[in-house]
Amino acid sequence: MNIANKVIWVTGASSGIGEALVYELAKRNCKLILSARREAELQRVKKNTNLPDEQILILPIDLEQFKNAQTWVNKAIEKFSTIDILINNGGISQKSLAMETTEAVEQKFWNINYFGNVALSKAVLPIMQQKKYGKVVVITSILGKFGLPQLSTYAATKHALYGFYESLRLELVKDNVSVLLAAPGFINTQVSVNAIDGEGNITNENSDAQLNGMKPDVFAKNLVNAIVKDKQHVYIGKKELLTIPFKTLFPKLFYKIMLKLSNKK
After folding, report:
1. CATH of the domain at 172
2. Lowest-confidence segment of 59-63, 218-222, 248-252, 258-262 by average pLDDT
3. Domain that holds residue 87
4. What is the pLDDT of residue 265?
5. What is the CA radius of gyration of the chain?
6. Residue 67 within any structural domain of the chain
7. DSSP class of residue 39?
8. What is the structure's pLDDT at 205?
9. How confident is the model at residue 264 (pLDDT cuts 50, 70, 90)?
10. Which of 98, 118, 86 is nearest to 197 (CA)?
11. What are phi and psi of 153, to 5 degrees?
């Protein structure tokens, strides 16, 4: 797939993985829509791309307000008339025990990580279906394949994304629209610092795993290459990706080790 001059929408574009993706796509001469809650940060990212105004749109959105998805899409269409690729990257992380997480916080996770993600895709897809071309890229997580302590609801939302988009992919074949599920391992971003606890407060705590994770720009290059190669699924990270086959082959030992490692934190 040649992505030059394609209109690509990146959510969660104000920092971390999303910001790195914007810079990588800008290098490849794409037309970009940048979305996140913080408009000032989006403007900073836009400035760093050095792209002319006609090639980039700042479109602030709050995925928790997912019922506004069609309004967001209408604004994007006003600028570029079409959308070729949607990269659903926006989301939040967790650091709280399941029994200490309020129902309101659980609902917040579902609204942002799942319903907001899905609502935006469903609002964009008719455009792609009509022209018989397009791609939806979904940033999941290796925690869409297993769970860990203090990440119960986060992991649940990531598992749900797999179920929804693997089903949707098959429904879109007739429309020549594809789905790429991308599962990061540990990426060196502020995602852990910005994680929320069971009461909805930001934890402001990082982890060694995150600090030693893959650099966001390396992740971005890997993901964009996967888009160009029209892949359907990709894991991106370091040695932590070995947990996937290990869990499949030795599930009892896997969870014993994971529990031991979690108790050391």
Report:
1. 3.40.50.720
2. 258-262
3. 7-240
4. 52
5. 18
6. yes
7. H
8. 85
9. low
10. 98
11. -75, -40
How far apart are the C-alpha atoms of 91 and 113, rounded to whole Å?
5
183 with 144: CB under 8 angstroms?
Answer: yes
Strand 134-139's sheet: what is its strand order? 56-58, 31-35, 7-11, 85-88, 134-139, 177-184, 233-236
The pLDDT, as a whole number, for residue 1 is: 85
Active site residue 165: no
Please list, in sequence order, all residues whose beta carbon lies within 8 angstroms of the beta carbon of residue 152, skipping any fewer than 6 positions away. Answer: 94, 97, 98, 101
Does the reported pTM lie above 0.90? yes
- Beta strands 56-58 and 85-88 are unpaired
Determine which one of 154, 162, 165, 235 is catalytic: 154
Token representation of residue 61: 């959105």
Q: Give, to the nearest 10 degrees, the angle between helix 16-27 and helix 39-49.
A: 30
| Per-residue model confidence (pLDDT) at position 262 | 78
How many structural domains comprise the chain? 1
* Structure tokens that stand for 37 in this block: 């809650």
142, 243 Cβ separation under 8 angstroms? yes
Structure tokens at 71: 């309004």
Look at the alpha carbons of 136, 137, 139, 143 in this order and tell me if their dihedral is positive or negative.
positive
C-alpha closest to that of 32 among 49, 52, 5, 9:
9
251 in a structural domain = no
**Cα torsion at 21, 23, 24, 27 (round to 10°)?**
150
Average model confidence (pLDDT) across the chain: 95
* Bridge partners (DSSP) listed for residue 202: 196
Tell me which residue has tokens 């040695």: 239
Q: Do 32 and 22 meet the contact criterion of CB atoms below 8 Å apart?
A: yes
In a domain, 259, yes or no: no
What tokens does 176 get?
């020549």
| Inside any domain, residue 260 | no
